[in-house]
Amino acid sequence: MVENRITNVAIVGASGNSGRFMAQAILETGKHTLTALTRAGSNANLPAGVICKVIDYTKPETIVAALRGQDALVVTLPGQAPLETEVALIEAAGEAGVSWILNDWAVDTQHEDLVKDVPPLQKKVSVRKAIEKLGKSNYISLCTSFWYEWSMAIPDAFGIDLINHTAIFFDEGDTRITISTWPQVGRAVAAILSLPVKAEGSAACLETLKNKVVYCKSFTLNQQEMLESACRVTQTTKDDWKISKVPCEKRYEEGQQQMNKGEFDGFVKVLYTRVFYPDGCGNIDHKGTINELLGLPVEDLDTATLAAIERAKAQP
Q: Residue limits of the NmrA-like domain (predicted)?
């Protein structure tokens, strides 16, 4: 760390869906040296300028060694990664003297009913508690809600099939939720890491975000508005789409039954349908975002929808 700024940043998952956008945005600031932690044999395609260090999760000392001299650790593990893996990273970061950990990238895990109804979200809460209990690093958990390009391209997620032009509205399709694009998440992470640690005059600083869940977004939308964007991008009308409706609670229960059978599609249904419940758990606008503090831009919805369509076309 140089004076009042973070300079050395490590990232886990730098070649992943969201991690690659974070890595690229961090590099583009020109303010940080970025190190990617990868496993032996990994074929990760890292951006130019990223330092690569190999770690072995069965040998914690390799993680500690890779994190020595790092000011911050950005953790972007796959959703199915076990809690023990992230805890191993946290413990190694603490031993290596890493001051800041950025994590989460999820829906609002401070909403107790949502976490209760979607048990896999409990892992996010457990990670924060583990960092607090260890007491060696500070965390900033960034709630980005769903990734738009990812979710819009999966019919079971937002209920919209961009290829076959069908849409299933949950209830009436009018419940609004907040959403982030991958580029916006990348910009947010880079901007957070570029803040001074302590306040410089009236400027924002990391200390104000320390050990908090903070929120960023790209859009606040309902399914009807998502479909309208899809129509504009594909130059179709709603008459060209087969539209149906399903009660949220019914879809959620169907998802639970699938989960009990070990089907991943069930988890997708449970998570996405629950966030569209009319209790407002998916809309974080009332909690306030750090978009303005970080200088994040206002994005174009149709551009993001086009990216989702391209992704949907690329899927097998």
A: 8-141
pTM score of the predicted model: 0.95
Q: Output phi, psi for 8, to 5 deg.
A: -105, 120
Domains of the chain: 8-143+181-215 (3.40.50.720), 148-178+219-284+297-311 (no CATH)
Residues whose CB is less than 8 angstroms from the CB of residue 275 and which lie 6 or more positions away in sequence, other chains included = 107, 114, 145, 146, 177, 281, 282
Alpha carbons 47 and 11: distance in angstroms, whole number:
12
> Per residue in 68-97, is it b (16+ CB within 10 Å) or e — as a string?
eebbbbbbbbeeebeeeebbbbbbbbbbbe
* Pairwise CA distance, residues 225 & 222, whole Å: 5
CA distance 294 to 187: 9
Residue 201 has pLDDT above 80, yes or no: no
Residues of the chain with pLDDT > 70: what percent? 99
More confident residue, 166 or 120: 166
Sheet strand arrangement including 160-161? 160-161, 166-170, 242-246
pLDDT at 57 over 90: yes
